[in-house]
Amino acid sequence: MFRVAVLSRWHPHESRYTPELLAAPDCQVSCVWDIEEERGRAWAKEIHVPFVKDLEQIWRDAQVDGVVVTAPTTMHKEIILAAANAGKHVFVEKSLALTAKDAQDIQKAIESNSVVFTIAYIRCTTGPFMFAKTVKDSGILGDITMVRVRNGHNQGLNGVLPDYWFDPAQTGGGAMTDLGCHQMYLLDWMFGTPSTVNAMYSYYTSRAVEDSGVVTALYNDGKTLAIMDSSFTTYYSPYTFELYGTQGTLLVRLDQNGVEVHLPKDAQPWFASKYEGYVNKEIFGDRARYFVAGKALPDAPSPLRSWIDACTKGAPVLFDINSAVRLARMVECANIAHRTEQQCRF
């Protein structure tokens, strides 16, 4: 039995991970800890596990094999350093840190203590995005000249997000620093590291952190322009991922439950041989439009499940400390670019 301590109910994604742990037959939630004792005790009572007030007790506890870190982003470094030095495996919500230096310090602790580390890149296991990477890697779209990823919601307007979500002392930033991580790690997964980064943020609600932001970056030696945008203040924003190539286009909208691909019509035999479940929707001259239904694009096991398997079965670590360090650097570059109103070299 793999025994896990969940560290804080601060991040909204805790509600994604704890139920998954509780439902896993090979896992046990040993205890929980929170920065707010009252919230932590209520949470522990709700899921019928002990509440631990002092993190040192968890570090000393041989009955805890690993920790899930959903604490404030600004506390990640101190928590993960202590966890790694205590020999606990680590699963962490993004972003790992707010600077590359802090992320590299964490990396040293992870590697020197030989603990298994995974970061929660949930969109890299989402079926449509996995399909997009497969199509992109096949080369059928030609050279990718532009990519755009958008993720937004209205929870900065409707009171769903707690007040502390807009406190830079806890979050380190706003819409781009947290929600924008999804866009950043998706592009890292598909294109590697950028050469240069630009950013612009807005503050519609006049809070201390940005509630909307746009980051642009150049990949592939400047041949691929990427646009990443996030917002807490949009009434409705479908999660979109768009790849524009010299020989084809791929469009993902998660609310449409599928992926749209535009290719020359003579590519149909190749496309049909590779991808079951596609529908040839329309043909416009030499261009054919295909739609691959979501039911043909299942999700992979979650990052949390992959972490558990890596810890208990020696399975490969999919989203490792190196990728987490790169994300921290990307977040840092975006914040520097916005603050200085200048391009930041990665």
Describe the structure.
There is one protein chain. The chain folds into two domains: 2-122 and 301-319, Rossmann fold, CATH 3.40.50.720; 123-299 and 333-345, Dihydrodipicolinate Reductase, domain 2 (2-Layer Sandwich). It is 34% helix and 26% strand. The mean pLDDT is 95. It is α/β, with parallel strands linked by helices and 346 residues long. A ten-stranded mixed β-sheet has the order 13-14-12-11-10-6-9-8-7-15. It has a five-stranded parallel β-sheet with strand order 2-1-3-4-5, with helices on both faces. The protein has eleven helices and 15 strands. The two termini are 42 Å apart. GO terms for molecular function: nucleotide binding. Residues 17-120 form the Gfo/Idh/MocA-like oxidoreductase N-terminal domain.
Q: Determine Rg (CA atoms, Å).
A: 21 Å
Major sheet: arrangement of strands: 13-14-12-11-10-6-9-8-7-15
Count of discrete domains: 2
CATH architecture of the largest domain: 2-Layer Sandwich
How many β-strand stretches? 15
Shape: globular
Helical amount: 25-40%
- Count of helical regions: 11
The CATH superfamily of the largest domain is known as: Dihydrodipicolinate Reductase, domain 2
Give the secondary structure arrangement, pairings included.
Elements: E1 2-7, H1 14-23, E2 27-33, H2 37-47, H3 55-60, E3 66-69, H4 76-85, E4 89-92, H5 100-112, E5 117-119, H6 127-138, E6 144-152, H7 168-171, H8 180-191, E7 196-202, E8 212-219, E9 224-231, E10 240-245, E11 249-253, E12 258-264, H9 268-274, E13 278-284, E14 287-293, H10 303-313, H11 321-340, E15 344-345
Parallel strand pairs: 1-2, 1-3, 3-4, 4-5, 6-9
Antiparallel strand pairs: 6-10, 7-8, 7-15, 8-9, 10-11, 11-12, 12-14, 13-14
